[in-house]
Amino acid sequence: MKLHRLRDAARPAIALQLDGQGIVAQQGDTLLTALLAGGAGHLRRSDFGDESRAGFCLMGACQDCWVTVEGLGRVRACATPAGPGMVVHRG
Amino acid sequence: MKVAVIGAGPAGTRAVETLLAHGISPVWLEESADGGGRIYQRPPAPLARDHRTLYGFEAKRAAALHSAFDAARSRADWRPQTLVWHIRPSTRQLHTVSQGQQAVVDYHAAILCTGAMDRVIPIPGWTHPGVTSLGAAQIALKSQGCAIGQRPVFLGSGPLLWLVAYQYAKAGAPPAAVLDTTPFATKLAATPGLLRGGATFAKGLFYITWLRAHGIPIAEGVSPIAIDGAEDGVTALRWRDAAGREHRTECDALGLGWGLRPEAQLADLAGIPFRFDAVQHNWIPERDLAGRTPVAHHYLAGDGAGIGGAEMAELAGRRAALAVLQNARTPIDTAAAAALDRKLAAGQKFRVALERAFPFPAKLAASLPDDTILCRCEGLRAADIRATAMVDYHAGVAPELNRAKAFSRAGMGRCQGRLCGAATAEVLAAALGQPVEAIGRLRGQPPVKPIPIAAA
Ligand SMILES: Cc1cc2nc3c(=O)[nH]c(=O)nc-3n(C[C@H](O)[C@H](O)[C@H](O)COP(=O)(O)OP(=O)(O)OC[C@H]3O[C@@H](n4cnc5c(N)ncnc54)[C@H](O)[C@@H]3O)c2cc1C
Ligand code: FES
User: Fold this and answer.
1) Binary contact (A73, B132; C-beta < 8 A)
2) Architecture of domain A15-90 in CATH?
3) Is A12–B46 a contact, with Cβ atoms under 8 angstroms apart?
4) Rounded to whole angstroms, how far apart are CA atoms B259 and B348?
5) Among A77, B270, B383, B427, which one is least packed by beta carbons within 10 Å?
6) Complete domains list, chain B, with CATH
7) Cis peptide leading into B446, omega within 30 of 0?
8) Would the pLDDT of B86 be above 90?
9) ipTM topping 0.85
10) Which atom of ligand 1 is nearest to the CA of B317?
11) Does B146 touch chain A (CB under 8 A)?
12) Closest of B118, B94, B119 to residue B31, by C-alpha
């Protein structure tokens, strides 16, 4: 899944890491926006099977956007602001 | 008197404002970092907050609600980023967690303004990345300035379908198609009642007309077949038109939704009885117009008490606060309360017409193919639910959704059935040959949402 930036797309940049790869995001992004606009494609795998997932509700209800942030633990990407230097792992 | 208000959407904001006007400063708990609720959610600071762009026709109402919120926040005991994960009505205590910190909040009276979320039918392929709820598609645009795709398809029924499609087209991501599962004739039949809604109805017509005029492909009375996709996105939606012809629409994202369902887990934990509302096709907690419930000291307002829309939520929030004050024998303007009652009653009539225009397609849910994943948390398929129905059938046991849950784990995943609940009930009811209200509803359980392990 690729999020496309349509508005306010010229905010100051922040750099994150996802599974060892660099992601450039923008201030004000949620972690979900940062990752999916930055080309992550998906955020986790289903607990029961191998399917890829990338969140569904964007409002903290479906719990299908969990990622792990070093120092924070498992968080919902849609409900967590992206921060500079965050080291993120899928699932 | 200590009053707790849960939720800072239109209902919660007006409830708090009304309490403050009568000299009561409530504890105000909200899971998000900011107020506004779903419809008037504000983007985080670095994004522009131009009301006209973000809220369209609702710009004035949004601005009014935000200024009411900003004024109330500083005078109440405002606690953002605080999830209420349990409520104990007997000891009148709320259990909260905020950034890993647990707390218990005592109250004399509580007003639950917990809002709603999208009502979803799991179409085959709906777990692919790139498929979101209609509400999510809107949140991406409004609060993050992003589109879920460059050529999205929007599928479902209800006012949000047309609104989101319009917002995407205006923002520069014209939908590849807008597909409404409700036949045109159903909407036409509901028109006389909808005319009561005046401006709301006119706005709906405006969006549809605008989309047609701008060449966005629209079809009504459609049946979805499946969403095609791969590891990192969707490629197409396959669907059947009203005449039964098959189509394949290529797209890079898909937003789907069929109206809203109340976020009513806390009301359930508070012991408030529920009834099946046949018109809304939802289980809703019992309350009177003023928001009083059969459980003393517990009040409900807004979409969490049955879907009514943002305007009604504001009125209901005000009215519930007045009911709390009345119960505490605080003098209030009874004429104002009566006027609110009249408006709320009129609003309910319009709502009935709206629900008739966009009825929940129960048949579509009931007839989902066996291999459709219903529960995205646990990977359960329609066949698994149908199998539990057969167990009950052979055992001669009264069919019940919570039994099915125990057997199959449906609704036991992390989302507590928020997404699969509506469709699971239809699949089970159809398999048992029972009306959907006969098989009950999934019960809410604490914590209402998963809380971080570190905090538990
Ligand atoms: C995603 C989405 C998009 C929508 N878009 C539109 C639109 O564009 N136009 C329109 O007319 N209507 C829209 N609606 C409907 C509209 O949002 C509602 O009618 C209106 O917001 C209802 O107001 P409310 O105060 O009852 O609830 P809400 O605005 O939903 O507010 C409820 C608040 O309670 C909080 N909350 C819930 N549970 C807890 C808890 N346990 N602990 C702490 N806080 C909690 C939530 O975070 C939320 O902020 C939308 C609904 C959804 C779900
Ligand atoms: S996308 Fe549903 S909880 Fe984050």
Assistant:
1) no
2) Roll (3.10)
3) yes
4) 16
5) B383
6) 3-117+261-355 (3.50.50.60), 120-258 (3.50.50.60), 363-439 (1.10.10)
7) no
8) yes
9) yes
10) 25
11) yes
12) B94
